[in-house]
Design a protein that fits this description.
Layout (H helix, E strand, L loop, with lengths): L1 H16 L3 H9 L10 H31 L5 E9 L4 H4 L4 H23 L2 H10 L4 E6 L4 E3 L6 E7 L6 E6 L4 E8 L2 E8 L4 E3 L2 E7 L11 E6 L2 H11 E7 L4 E8 L2 H21 L5 H33 L4 H38 L10 H4 L9 H23 L5 H79 L11 E5 L12 H26 L6 H7 L3 E7 L20 H16 L6 E7 L6 H14 L4 E5 L7 H4 L8 H5 L5 H4 L1 E2 L5 E4 L8 H6 L1 H13 L2 E5 L8 H8 L2 E7 L5 H14 L5 E7 L1 H4 L26 H9 L1
Parallel strand pairs: 14-21, 15-19, 15-20, 16-18, 16-19, 20-21
Antiparallel strand pairs: 1-12, 1-13, 2-3, 2-10, 4-9, 5-6, 5-10, 6-7, 8-9, 11-12, 17-18
């Protein structure tokens, strides 16, 4: 089926674009993909149809969680909290400060880690095996799971000789004093019967089964087995389930935890570890005198060496930098730098004043009025402290005012004026030289100050480093001096005191009987089952959404095509039809009749200016309902008092005559070859204003007949008789006849069948429109369910069900499962 549909789609593209040539290829390259993004309508439909599967998957996930909990042995955890007060050498001697705290902190972490390793060592394991019955495990067999009978077994086993370790021995009591034992040896099951309290041999091993206080009448109803564990198995079991961790290093607390399927066994092992550990710690107590003296001597030697190094480093620093007080040096240099800065500002101000004086001298007049002196006009001149400059400025100013008076009385060529100018020029030259010498002198002084400032600044920049270095050298010296004196005092004070580690062991929280298992956690398992069901359900919805490749509702049609939507025709299953039929005359008030009336109204809006209309109805492939739509649309138009004729131009597969129950011995093909006239081929229907012309016998050249002038003449003659010519064309995805007819139509209509037409067909509608310039091409969504009708006002309130009964493919009777799925969707 998929191969045929792909072939039809390829043929559709070739037929729709074949007549366009190179222009069609370019048009295809400009096609814009429409309908991209998330289609919420389709997604909502898929979600509704997948709700039953979501519920089933959630139920499956919860059922799986229940089965997991039912057939998984719960794991229990018992814990105790220990406090280990370790008094180290430094703590016992009262060595505080940086030395004592650093040493004590490192030793605390190190010793706690050592205690953890001690608890998990073979030393503790051997004591556990000697004090607890871990060598033999007893089990009661259940339907699926087995239960360990730690401490409550109805029997005990004594063994000696050549032991068969890690072998499962099954025990079945045939009577209170008799039992049957079986085991596998060399792949063969060995079985024997024995008496309680009587030794018996199995290979090189001697066994004896003794009853305990838990032996009773119910013992005979159960099956038991036991296993004798070797040392490696026991050690592996303890390593696997024992957890020792440091809870708080500052408080020296350690937590001991043990996990097991039996809560009583986990508690017993934790309590026994606490006891065995205490015994081991007491056994490790040592005399401390030698350790204390050795520790003090070691610390004194190290401190003496460090003190000598620190003193030598400080002396080297003082010799190199010629100072012991860096802060005093910094203050002195800072004061010098401030004085130099003041001097520098004064020199800069003098230079600025000289520049201003030079500018005034060049302008022509130094003072504003003749009666003012230079000192009165320039008060800051006194700061320059240059009498020669003041004298020259006064002389220049006097000559300039004399020149102005002479210029007002004499011409420029007068001898007196010329002499005055020469005198002024001479004095100005002297003034310029004096100003230049003064500026050069000040600039030299300023440069010398800058060099001194740079030198002081450089020296200041090195002082922080020297201060830091001095502080760095002073700190260890002070520290080692204090430590040395303190150690000397402690040497006398603790000469005979106890040193070393004094164990102070305390159980802060003894092991208690576990109440709830740590694994599996019911709430978490059920949550995982629920989440798994939801995730699988959502994944199923996503897969169904992405695999959904058929048109389901009108919004998909609108999103994917640029053609206008005339309307939606709901599913019709009032009766089962092997071929398309006229149903609007029999059910005028049904939902399908109302929907086609709406399409008729929309057609009136499209072609309101034309009284004569040529309407073509086509689709992509066969089975999309174009004949059904043509027949019933023609019937609805005819019921509005318009004369309508339906032409069946699907000459290769005619169906219109079948819709009206008529013969197909003559029709369009015989008219076009002039074998019959139009009047001879017109057939009437139950509606007076509705006629039809069947396709006639299938010709060998349908496309050539449609291209002939006879076809245009036939349409012209029919336009004289009828108001509407409705043409049922072949599928455009199979043959080119449909394209040829659509070019002649006033209103070409394209049928898309819901849940049947592929979404790829919708892209071809746009290609057909662009390639042939069908600006009036409209679409109709056929066979739409209630969800596809949403938003158009149909499908609710008419009391009819929906199905697919009027197509060629007949639908089988729906079973219970399909009806339930339909109900949920």
């Amino acid at each position: 089926m998929a191969v045929n549909e792909n072939a039809e789609l390829e043929e559709l593209i070739r037929n729709a674009t074949g007549s366009g040539g190179a222009s069609t290829v370019s048009a295809e390259s400009e096609v814009v993909e429409e309908g991209g993004g998330l289609d919420f309508d389709t997604l909502l439909m898929v979600v509704r149809r997948s709700l039953i599967w979501l519920l089933l998957l959630i139920g499956l996930g919860i059922t799986g969680s229940w089965l997991f909990l039912r057939y998984t042995k719960p794991v229990y955890k018992s814990s105790s909290l220990l406090k280990i007060d370790e008094k180290t050498e430094a703590g016992a001697l009262g060595l505080g400060g940086a030395l004592g705290e650093g040493v004590a902190g490192r030793q605390s972490i190190s010793k706690l880690s050592g205690e953890v390793e001690l608890i998990k060592s073979n030393i503790i394991y051997r004591r556990l095996k000697d004090s607890l019955d871990l060598d033999v495990n007893y089990y009661a067999e259940g339907t699926v799971l087995e239960t360990e009978l730690y401490g409550v077994s109805p029997f005990r086993v004594d063994y000696e000789g050549d032991i068969l370790y890690n072998t499962k021995f099954s025990v079945v009591f045939t009577s209170p004093q008799k039992f049957r034992i079986s085991y596998l040896q060399g792949g063969q099951e060995q079985t024997s019967e024995h008496t309680v309290n009587q030794p018996f041999r199995i290979g090189g091993m001697t066994l004896r089964l003794r009853p305990t206080a838990y032996m009773g009448a119910t013992t005979l109803d159960n099956n038991y087995h036991f296993t004798i564990n070797d040392e490696g198995t026991i050690n592996s079991y303890l390593d696997r389930n024992l957890l020792v961790e440091i809870v708080n290093p500052d408080a020296n607390t350690i937590q001991i935890s043990f996990q097991d399927f039996t809560p009583a066994k986990a508690r017993a092992i934790v309590n026994k570890i606490d006891t065995v550990y205490l015994q081991e710690k007491i056994a490790q107590k040592q005399a401390a005198t030698a350790q204390t003296l050795q520790f003090l001597q070691q610390q004194l030697a190290e401190n003496r060496q460090n003190l000598a190094v620190a003193e030598e480093n400080l002396q080297s620093f003082a010799r190199q930098n010629k100072t012991y007080d860096v802060k005093a040096t910094i203050g002195d240099l800072t004061g010098r730098l401030e004085k130099q800065e003041e001097e520098r500002l004064r020199l800069v101000e003098k230079i600025r004043l000289l520049n201003e004086v030079a500018a005034l001298a060049e302008q022509g007049t130094i003072t504003a009025r003749e009666d003012l002196t230079v000192e009165e006009s320039i008060p800051a001149l006194a700061t320059i402290e240059n009498p020669q400059l003041s004298q020259q400025l006064t002389e220049v100013n006097s000559l300039q005012w004399n020149l102005r008076r002479l210029s007002r009385s004499y011409k420029e060529t007068t001898e007196a004026v010329q002499q005055q100018r020469e005198a002024l020029s001479y004095v100005r030259g002297n003034l310029r030289r004096t100003l230049k010498q003064s500026r050069d002198l000040l600039a030299g002084q300023l440069a010398a100050l800058d060099r001194q400032r740079n030198s002081i600044t450089s020296e200041l920049q090195t002082l922080p480093q020297k201060a830091t270095e001095l502080a760095r050298l002073t700190r260890p010296l002070e520290l080692y001096e204090k430590s040395y004196l303190m150690l000397m005092d402690k040497m006398v004070e603790f000469n005979i005191a106890k040193a070393g580690t004094t164990p102070d062991f305390q159980i802060l929280s003894p092991a208690s009987m576990p109440g709830e298992p740590i694994s599996p956690v019911k709430l978490m398992v059920y949550a995982i089952g629920l989440a798994s069901g939801i995730v699988l359900g959502l994944a199923l919805m996503a897969v169904r959404y992405f695999m959904h490749n058929t048109v389901t509702n009108v919004r998909e049609l609108e999103r994917a095509t640029s053609a206008s939507v005339l309307g939606v025709i709901p599913t019709y299953d009032k009766e089962k039809m092997s071929v398309s039929k006229l149903v609007v005359d029999k059910n005028p008030k049904s939902a399908i009749s109302e929907s086609i009336r709406s399409i008729r109204t929309n057609l009136d809006f499209i072609s309101s200016a034309k009284k004569k209309r040529l309407i073509s109805v086509t689709s992509t492939i066969s089975g999309e309902g174009k004949t059904f739509v043509s027949v019933n649309l023609g019937g609805i138009i005819a019921l509005s008092e318009q004369r309508v004729v339906i032409l069946d131009l699907d000459m290769r597969k005619p169906k219109v005559n079948l819709a009206f129950g008529a013969e197909n011995v003559k029709g369009v093909s015989t008219i076009l070859i002039e074998k019959h006239t139009i009047q001879e081929c017109i057939q009437h229907t139950s509606i007076p204003t509705l006629d039809f012309i069947s396709a006639g016998p299938t010709p060998p050249n349908p496309s050539e007949l449609i291209l002939s002038t006879k076809f245009d003449d036939m349409l012209a003659e029919l336009h004289q008789i009828y108001d509407v010519i409705l043409i049922d064309t072949p599928p455009v995805g199979l043959v080119t006849d449909g394209i040829l007819i659509m070019r002649k139509a006033d209103i070409p209509i394209y049928i898309v069948r819901a849940n049947y037409s592929k979404k790829a067909f919708l892209k071809n509608i746009n290609k057909v429109m662009r390639a042939n310039g069908f600006t009036r091409l409209s679409t109709i969504l056929n066979d739409s369910t209630a969800s596809g009708l949403y938003g158009y006002g149909y499908g609710y309130g008419y009391g009819y069900g929906y199905g697919q009964g009027y197509y060629e493919d007949t639908k089988p009777e729906e079973g219970m499962v399909k009806r339930l799925r339909k109900r949920f969707s």
